Every structure is written in structure tokens, then in C-alpha cells.
């Protein structure tokens, strides 16, 4: 089937262009006595915000479409190893142009020059686990994929922020940091931003309040060993556990652990029911993009270089999620949340698990 590249290819006369509809304006300055046109070299290029998404599978497309509907950038470049799927997805998004703020959408299956000068690069490309394949083997395959992707992103956008979404997200954020050569503050994994939203949803649903009024963090590894910070949960500013204790309302530690497990298992349930997760990670990544690019300085639990925080030794270059202040410079600081001894112990365990995997990667 014929590939449509431009309307001139289809026979539209070349005189029918921008200048046919619009006369150029004279850029005379008001204060100038002589009517001079600005030399073109002194006219600054318009400031644009550009986001790149690598991988246009279920997750990449959910992120791309949330970014477009929330008007977070002026240019969006999409990359995927599958050229037909990529072009199909790009055209499908472009066909929504009449309903969305104007965003230039570019795509390529292999030419990373289209990503040049991105402010934020989001990596969602990822191999899926094969039947009988170990987790470590999957990690190795994704590391090989990242060796192809990350250096090219870094080359074309040396000042960008990198946001890793592909799983296992903590290990791959470490890999992206190593391969990019970027300062750690500019390499972030989506981490437990999503797990925390699932946690807040469950609590809010039970209490019949808006999830935005529930402050609750999951930290550590994105996945099975994530740690729920019960001691710091507040609803409308009221600390939950200490209020229960003050009012002598009993609760069981086992019930708290059952709720944490339900948060972890809710991802598996979505995958069992629809085959993958997409919408929530789309909103999670878009909320991170907004905070980063608009310098919102909001607190998000994200995967970051955690050495030196919460008792994680300085010689362990491990990435895991901690509540962090994010802005245009990336990670601006790690929040000093009080952890109980048990929470700190679980976080250490998460760090040990991730450290063991990282050491086998030979990076
Ligand atoms: N961090 C989170 O919270 C979270 C949530 C959901 C999914 N994920 C992860 O996101 C990743 C993507 O999930 P999905 O459901 O979109 O998978 P998917 O299989 O639908 O999409 C993956 C895409 O990556 C592309 N790809 C593969 N190799 C590539 C390469 N070298 N360069 C460019 N593109 C390449 C594939 O063609 C495919 O389109 C997985 O690793 C998944 O586990 C993370």
C-alpha cells in the first residue's frame, strides 16, 4: 500500500504553502527611529519543550497520549524497533490533531537524531519474560537493549532528564545511569510513584475520600518487596496510625501487611485480566513529566541513587524509590521521612536484593 508522506507528493501545487495564506510581518521595533528589520541571526529561536518516548507498546502509548492531552510539550518524538506499529501509532495520534493543543509528533524506528534537544527522554522499551525464563535472564536481555538505546539518547540530548519506566525499573534505572554518563540527579525511575497511587486509591476508596487528600508512600523496590510507610500516612493532614493509637482503636500488624500485599497484587490482577497495565502508568509518568519540566518541586516516590540515604551504605550504588523533591534539575532532594525500625529494615532488604542483581550485570 502507498505510504503517504506529504500533500505535495499527492500533487498539491507547491505554491499552496504557508506564504500563500500569510503575509510576513515587518519586525520593526517601536523605539527605533530608522525602520530596520532585525537581522535573522539576532532573532532567538522559539523555546520549545520536547519529550521523547522510546517504545510505543501499551505503556509508551498510554504515556504519549496522556502527555498530549495534558499539553506537556511542543514536540514529541517516538521511537520503536517495530516500524509498522510505530508509524501506525504516530498517524493515529496525529489524526487527533484537531482535538488537541498543537504538538509536533515525529517518529523513527532507528534514527535517534529525531530525539535531538529533548528535555525529557522516557524509556518504556522492554522485552517481556519468556516462558521458563529467569528474572535475571530477562534483566540481561533488557540491559542489552538499553546498551543500544541509552547512549544514543545521551548523545543527541546531553542535557536531558532520563525517566526509565521499563522493568525491572530500579535495576534498569541504574543501568541507564551507568550507560548515559549523566549525573545521578538527572536519571530517574518511575519506581513506586505508581505503587503509591494504588496504595492511596485503596485507602481513599475505603475512607470514601479523594485519593489526593491521602498522603501515603510506598518506597524501596517497585514490585514485590516494596515497603509501605504506614507510620507517615496522613488523611487531610491527620496522621492515621498515631490517631488510632491515641483513640485506643486497635489494629493488627498483619492487616497492614495484607493491605501492602493487596497493593502489590493489584498490578498482577490487572495483567491477569487485561494482559498488561497501561492507563495508571500513563498518568504516573505524565505527572512526573509535569513536575520535572514545569519545575513543580512536588514530592514523588521515584527510583533514584539511594546510597547514603536511610542507612544505605555509601558504597552501594543502588537505585530504589524514596520520596523525593523533583523539579527542572531532576532530583532536587530526598525527603527526610521518619521510618520505624521495621520500615528501615525492610528498605535495607530491598536495597540488598537490588544490589545483588546489579552486581551480576558486569557494568
Ligand atoms: N514502571 C512501571 O510502573 C511499569 C508499569 C507497567 C509496565 N512497565 C514496563 O514497561 C515496559 C513496556 O511494557 P508494555 O506493556 O508497553 O510492553 P509492549 O511489549 O507492549 O511494548 C514494548 C515496546 O518496546 C519496543 N521495543 C523493543 N525493543 C526495542 C528497542 N531496542 N528500541 C525501541 N523499541 C523497542 C517493542 O517493539 C514494543 O513496541 C515493560 O518492561 C513493562 O514491564 C513498567
UniProtKB/TrEMBL annotation:
It is an enzyme of class 1 (oxidoreductase). Residues 192-356 form the Lactate/malate dehydrogenase C-terminal domain. Its EC number is 1.1.1.27. Pathway: Fermentation; pyruvate fermentation to lactate; (S)-lactate from pyruvate: step 1/1. It comes from the Eukaryota. GO terms for molecular function: L-lactate dehydrogenase (NAD+) activity. Residues 49-189 form the Lactate/malate dehydrogenase N-terminal domain. It catalyses: (S)-lactate + NAD(+) = pyruvate + NADH + H(+). The active site is at residue 222. Keywords: NAD, Oxidoreductase. The keyword Oxidoreductase applies. NAD(+) binds at residues 55-60, 80, 142, 165-167. GO terms for biological process: lactate metabolic process. Pfam families: Ldh_1_C, Ldh_1_N. GO terms for cellular component: cytoplasm. PROSITE patterns: L_LDH. Belongs to the LDH/MDH superfamily. LDH family. This is L-lactate dehydrogenase. It comes from Iris pallida (Sweet iris). The lineage of its organism: Eukaryota, Viridiplantae, Streptophyta, Embryophyta, Tracheophyta.
